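Changelog-adjacent note: as of this version, every example in the card shows the full chain rather than a window. The one below runs 244 residues end to end.
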Amino acid sequence: MTAAVISANAGYIFLTFLPPILWLLFYLHEDRRPEPKMLLILTFIGGMASAIIAIFVEYFFLADKGVFPWLFGVSMAANPLFFFFVIAIVEEYVKYLPFKFLISGRNEFDEPVDAMIYMMTAAMGFAALENALFAIPLFRESFFSGLEIMTSRFLGANLLHALSSAIVGFFIAKSFLSPRRHHFIAAGIVIASILHMVFNYLILESRAFPLGVMYLFFLLLLMTIMVLVEFEQLKKRNVNLDKE
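Full-length structure tokens:
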């Protein structure tokens, strides 16, 4: 009986980790010079750790007795846009931390496009743990319910995390040519957070809007195009550096 429970839970964990890993493999394919596997694994684990940090920070800020309700005297539910922006900026910032502490400054970080690769790797670690927290309880109740939520997250939240962190990675890459490096990174986190906030708000309001699902699709499509264009810009920059 115990072996069956362990086997089932291991299977659920595999299913929750599979979608982010598939997205990660897709984007790693864009990197012409693959990064060291151990660094990618370390960054992925760092992303998982950042999800735990996000849970505690969000609770500290947004719970009924948290910082924001205490300051403003109202429930965060009264202002969903503000609520979602706080969540978004917390999550986008903590996903940046694995890059900041584990990758930035290393000799292996030697190409502009690497910033996007490592940021997306951290994001997929974050998404994997988030998937587990969302889906494993559902899997235990009904396998098909868990599978349904994983499919929707693969096409929604997991893709969002990859794209928003890739945007931050692009700004990190651009920051190395600017004397105002921290301004660039802050701008990337804010832009990614705004897009993240809009996605979360549209998810909440999608049932109220007849075209809500279409808005979500166009938002993700816009972010995908942005990231692909950014990838190509940084690849060209890598080629120019090689020629020099």
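Structural remarks: The chain has a mean pLDDT of 83.
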